[in-house]
Amino acid sequence: MNYHIAVALTSCVLAGVFGQFSADWGMLGWIGFASWAAFFAAGGGIKGAQKTVVTNLFGVAIGCAVVYIASVTGMSNPMLLPLMGGVFIMCAAGYFSFLSFVPGSFIGCAAYLGSGALALESIASLLVGIILGFIAERGALMLAKGKK
């Protein structure tokens, strides 16, 4: 079987289950899907999962810092400068090899901010999305007899 067809099959089954039950499990489906996509964008496999976990969590940490700084500034537009600083840090941190997957950082930050600052739900959803991507990839490799 062709790998793309195989990954389509494994992903659609996993996506259906996750999409149906993510809210019941206390997760935000859109965040899981974003990190799932990031897993594949990072190259998949163990290395892609590692890159995605580290950068997603870094992005959540930046998001937390942005919200905290914005809450204590008293500015008329409190998100402007903290968010600019956060984006600068996420991009500049790409200099370091373990943070070089900058889209993962943006996804983590966006997940936290878009969730309304729900840290645990965001982190759980990000991690489950990466796990689902890994499972979809492994299942597809089995169906495709190891040929990507």
TrEMBL record:
Keywords: Membrane, Transmembrane, Transmembrane helix. Pfam families: DUF1097. InterPro entries: DUF1097 (IPR009476). The chain crosses the membrane at residues 29-46, 53-73, 79-98, 110-136. This is Membrane protein. It comes from Desulfoplanes formicivorans.
